[in-house]
Amino acid sequence: MSPRATGPTRLRPSLVIPAVGVPIAIAAAVLVPMQANAAVDLPDKTVEELVAFARSSDVPALSGTIEQRSELGLPDLSGLAGGGPGGVGGPGASADGASSAGLDDLLALATGSFDANVYLDEQHARLQVLDRMAERNVYLGPDEAWFVDSESMTATRLTLPAGTDLAQLQADAQAEAERLADEARARAEAELPDGEQLPTPQQLLDRALDRLDETTAVSVGTDGRVAGREAYELVLEPRTDDTLVGEVRFAIDGENGAALAASITARGAADPAFSVGYSRVDFSAPDPSAFAFEPAGDMTVSEQVLPVPTAEEWAQWKADAEAHAEAEAGAAPDPSDLPHPVVHGEGWASVVEVDAATAMAAIAERSGPAAGDESADGATGATGATGAPTEEQLAEASAALEALTTPVDGGRALQTSLLSVLLTEDGRVLVGSVPVDTLVEYAASGR
Asked: Where does the source fall among the domains of life (predicted)?
């Protein structure tokens, strides 16, 4: 197992799940880099055949070790969200410790390195996040889930309300998904010219690859081994030099089509800036004991019942949504609607620009008085029930901004290996996988 990066932050399972869930779902494994091996000579596949092979993959069970490695070139973020001396979450900062801890975890999850074991079968899942001297576990079963932290010796059991028919809920959800798909298909067929039919999945894939080819060189790389598995390699390279991204690589299992690896390398770099996946993977069903959990006697155990809507509540929600959609059809634009982003450039060099000041004003209008409104005691920007930031929170945000960014013409900017962000003096935010100079040019010219 590769050594893990050290640091004060511990990842919580509740935050790891959404980030790791995607690579779990595609059975990803670490590729840093893919191990080329002359002994690996899989049957040749074209790009189209390899993508179709991966899309058809169906892996019902597996176990393995996920490793995330991140070298984005970010400044030290450890003090921004809690506890660090002089950090935003340090003494004198906001008392919302839970929020600070959550931000700390999100920052570490997006920018750090960690290991986690994963176990899956058709009815159970377990995620075991490995810390330096402890671990967190998430157990998911057919009718309950456990969140367990060995360091704090706490276990939280999540259950469904008594009498919940999970099978019926799943059947209802499947039926609703099929109904929506049928409606979408009917609308699409009605818009087709006479004599034409909807494209087949293969035709849709071909069209998607054709569109991708306009901006990206897609190729099949060298066969190799990942986590002991023979694998194909799919390589995506931007056709422009105007992006920070050099290439994206995926390893695809040669036997079952599962994606075994993913990595992103910055332009001109030799090693990936970001990679995530398995260093070890086994596609057989894990031993049932891997999913068994019984809290120890000295653990603090709590229970939470997950709110599950009844069939009547689902029906009412659906009716309300349809009524709202009908009422909105043809109506004049709502002045409180969030502004649409402006997109500069195209493909890998695209830059998204958002008027942050207008967006924040629209959010404030929807949630209560604007941030500049006076509170009952006459203080401007007091939070209270309005949700507006306090002066202390604004000061914390300003400190974080200065810690993360550097001054540039017209604002402040942050550039990592793969992404740049520009915050302009007039309240706009520009983001893209391009150099900061490109953002500054777009901000100045408005092109």
From this structure: Bacteria
